[in-house]
Amino acid sequence: MENNVLKIIEESGSKGPKYESLVKIFKLYEQLQYATNIKHIAHDIYYWLNREFKIDNMVFTLFNINKNEKEDIYIEGEHFYLDDEFSNFFIINTDTSINATVSFRAISKVHNKIIQDQFYIIDAAFHLISPIIQNGILKKNYIESSSIDSVTNVYNRSYLVEHLNKHLSLTRNKQSQIYFLMVGIDHFKAVIDEFNHDIGDIVLIELAKVIYSNISEFDIIGRLTGDEFLISLFSAEYEYEVNSIAHKIIADFAQTEIIVDEKTNQILKKTICIGIDKHLICDEKDISETIKNADIALYEAKNKGRSSLFNYKDLRIEDTIDLF
Fold this sequence. Notes:
This protein is of the alpha+beta class and 324 residues long. The protein is 48% helix and 21% strand. It has two domains: 2-145, Beta-Lactamase; 155-319, Reverse transcriptase/Diguanylate cyclase domain (Alpha-Beta Plaits, 2-Layer Sandwich), CATH 3.30.70.
């Protein structure tokens, strides 16, 4: 890659094709100076490829060499296979344990020939921007280490509340209310006592998966305490929608089989309860009060029995108990 950059510089004595190649490369470099995160970087790379090379699809992936894991950061356009004759694949070395890959597919044989003729330009550009991608990866890792729960890969409590407060201020003129769902596992301590913390972690991970599968990309989930998760439903406008989502989460998790012992095929099934409260954005009430109410509703749901749902608005005065 570095040799390709030098080659272009050496051959760009005049404002000819080589000079134009340099312009293309440094347009991308300059554009990425304003990128705020790794997804923004990937987005800008796609638009550069689209503008300069007429690419209409791209997959930007981070690959962890140590863990042999990949994470798709940005996907644009129709699906394609890497072994397709018109597919192109680049590895961007970041000098860390995580490398970035960029892949895309030409739309025709002629288009692919044009890309192959200018392959060295793309290659050189990706070499030039590798430090920017490295910084994006480091920033992503830092944010996740301070904001993401290490077991379930959802937001932790402190970051969730901070993020919610910022989000509420932005949606004040667009949305009137938000529903909060407090989710708790029935008799979670019994899992730890009967098995161990590793099995407990698996239960938490499976619950997070079930929750994710039932909410939209606009909703937010965080882990508050040992077995409690808070869901912020920005996508649901009506109470019947909220109840439907909550019941679906309860039902799906009740059917989830958790493998305890692979040798004996021993499985574990657990249940959850959910408490609900509604936060009025125009209200002066602090968001922490709504979260507290959802937790009280969860307590009441657990009093009803396994797989129960309870709405804070249905709480009677004689049932009220100070939990905090």
